[in-house]
# Entry
Amino acid sequence: MKRLFSLLRNVTFLAMLCMTLATTAVSMGIWALSLTAQVTTMTAATAIANRKAIAAVIVRTKATARLRRALVVVPIAGIAAAFAFEREDYLEWKEHNPDGDVEGYGCEVSTVSAEVIDDVLQDLPKQVRPSRDWLLSRLPNCQSAELSPDAGSSSDFVASDQ
# Structure
C-alpha cells in the first residue's frame, strides 16, 4: 500500500509538472507570436512613414531645382538668382567647414560636379547637350596640397585652371 501511495504521488507530481510545462510552453508560444506580430506591424508602419518622408524630400528638392532653373532662364533675374543660390550654398558649406575657403568650396563643388556630370547631361535634350569632355575641361583641377610640418591639421586645396 505504501508503494502504491508513493507511486500515485510520483505520477500525480509528474502529471502536474507536465501540465505546467505544457501550459507554459503554449503561453510562451502565443506571447512570441504576439510580439512578432507587433514588431512586424511597427516595422511596416515605420517603413511606410520613411518612404513618405523620403518621397516628400525628393519632391521638395525637385521643386526647388525646378524653380532655380526657371529663375536662371530669365536674363537679369537669372544672373542675380544664380549668384544668390551659389552664395547660399557656399554659406551652408562654410557652416560645415569653418576652416574652409572659397578655393576649397570650389574644389569640392568641382569634384562632386565631375561625379554627377553624366547624369546631368543625360537629362538634357541632345540638341543643347554640350560635350562631356568640353564641360570637364572647364572644371578646375583640384589637388590636395601636401601638409608641411608647420601647417595646421586641415589640408588646403589648390585650384588650377586648364
Q: What stands out?
A: The chain has four helices and two strands. Residues 144-162 have pLDDT under 50 and may be disordered. The first strand starts at residue 141 and ends at 144.
